Structures are given as structure tokens and as C-alpha cells.
């Protein structure tokens, strides 16, 4: 059966692209950024750490192959992304990543 049985009748609205793996990872990075900024607002983490995390929360800054390898190794869909984000943020702020 056709993956999208309505493909011949309904034009692509762009919704499928939202479920692309890298789009999903970017959405998770947006959540990580929002979390860090909120934690900084509440005084739970340093503002500099939140700013560094937010600056790193762009998919093009991450090593996507490293994330894929981590997922293949651990079967965990999120933790390799978080580890890679921590690596990219670097010291002294990477340890504040969720």
C-alpha cells in the first residue's frame, strides 16, 4: 500500500517535513533552549549557561552522525542529542544542559 494513500488526490501541505528526523531534533533543541532560559529566570542555572545552551541549540552546530551513532548504540532517541548538545556547549556551561 502507498505510504500516503491520498498522495494522488491531496497535495503535499508540508506537514510530512515536520516529522523529518532533523526537524524533530530541532524541535527538541528548541525545548532545551526554553528550559535553560526558564531555569536561568528562576535562578536554577547561571544566565551565561542558558545563553550558551541557547546559542548551541541549532541543528547545524551539532554532529548529526555522532547523534545517529549514539541512537544506534543505545536505542534511546533523545539522550545522544543531549550528550552532543552538552559537547557543543562545552565547558564551563555544558554541564548545565538538561
Give a description of the structure.
The chain is mostly helical. The chain has a single domain, classed as Fumarase C, Chain B, domain 1. It is 58% helix and 0% strand. The protein contains five helices and no strands. Helix 3 packs across helix 5 and helix 4 (64-74) packs antiparallel against helix 5 (79-89). It is globular and about 55 Å long. 20% of the residues are buried. The model has no long low-confidence stretch (mean pLDDT 89).
Helix-strand layout with pairing:
Elements lengths: L14 H4 L2 H21 L5 H10 L7 H11 L4 H11 L9
Give the class-level CATH name.
Answer: Mainly Alpha
Radius of gyration: 17 Å
The percentage helix is: 55-70%
**Beta-strand percentage range:** under 5%
**What would the principal axes of the Cα set say about the shape?**
globular
- CATH topology name: Fumarase C, Chain B, domain 1
Number-wise, the strands total 0
Number of DSSP helical runs: 5
- CATH superfamily grouping: Fumarase/aspartase (N-terminal domain)
Report the structural category. Answer: mainly alpha
Q: Write the H/E string, N to C.
A: HHHHH
What is the count of distinct domains?
1
- Terminal residue distance: 41 Å
The averaged pLDDT comes out at 89
